[in-house]
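Figure 2 data, in text form.
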Amino acid sequence: MDHADRATRRTGAAAKAAARALQSPPPPPLPQPPGAADVRLRRAVELLYFAYRDFTADADALLVRYQFGRAHHRVIYFVGRSPGMGVGDLLALLRITKQSLAPVLAQLVEGGFVIQRADDGDRRRRRLYLSPEAEELERLLTERQTQRIAEAYAAAGPEAVDGFCRVLLAMINPDQRGRFGD
């Protein structure tokens, strides 16, 4: 069974689960705190959803040409940022299981996008590198996304940039913030 067959099977299972969920009664509404703060927070949630949708749309359009998804994008991005990283390091960074990484990594390796090399000190460990084709793909994907951020920064003004970064950093779990040096 190839990757497309597995993806179709997973998509079919997801559609069945969604249909079952639609037949179930809706969950009770969450209690709503009163006041203007709730309106502002809800607006921020909605803006974050739509910003993420549009931030990922350009990359998604390019990834579909390769039959890749966002998981492939994350692997390509982070292996490109840290060539030679170990599989265990990638798992820890992405906070995913081996089972969820395995099919994505296998497709990238089989397609010649990611190169695995044995670690010089421990032959059981695998180090990950991007192929030249993957480096170019990573450059294009990142270029599109950084352009969108640069345009948003220009529109919001220089005083908004630091505040935006502080908000994003504060949203990251405290045990993960150290990787950003702040």
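Caption note: The two ends are 46 Å apart (CA to CA).
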